[in-house]
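Lab notebook, bench 4. Still working through the backlog of constructs that have no structural model yet. Next entry is a single chain of 229 residues. Request: give me the structure tokens for it.
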Amino acid sequence: MPMAISQATETVRYPVSDGKPMAETPEHLEAMLYLLDALMRYFAGREDVYVAGNQFMYWIEGNPSQRVAPDVYVAFGVPKRPWRATWKVWEVGKAPDVIFELTSRSTAPEDLGRKYRLYQRLGVKEYILIDATREYLIEPVILHRLVGHEYQQIPNERPNDREWRAYSEQLGLYVVVRAEDEGYKVRLYDPSEGRIIPTAMELAEQAAELEARLRVLEAELQQRKEPGE
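Model written out:
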């Protein structure tokens, strides 16, 4: 079982931020925020699933220089509360089970090299790379699954020529990248319900539409009652 390394002999400070921006482009930021929000809503009913992102993960106790900041991650068997400012592998007892990295020009070499080897060594069960601009990876989504002690790339499903789907066994969801007129969109598909998990804006629009329909129905019912009153 992968274990964190302990080198601690005195109190050590583990920074929570390096001051760098969350994402390089609007496409990366949109994808990151969607994944965080959608996963938090999807696992809202489970107190043993921790979803977070864009925060430091430390794996060597006593050595804060050894750190990475996964864009989005999910850990099972970890209490949802309290929130953690950082993820320390030796405190939690494990690395996250699923990690998403949104690849960009500056991060692609590390995502495909150092992070790939690190996450494999730490026992991250699924490592999912997403290229939200379709510029840096062979395919816009690449899912690596840990088989034994090594990653295997899982082939994408192609329901049509504008969509790539990678199935996450850990999440029970498909990670979908879809080519649309305004660019590539990252979404999560729930096969148990046969639907894409909507964005927060889409949910708000659906709620507003439902409320408007209810008001119309209430008005119609009131009109039907009035003649006989």
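Notes after review: The longest strand covers residues 173-180. Residues 5-194 form a domain with the tt1808, chain A fold (CATH 3.90.1570.10). Flag for follow-up if needed.
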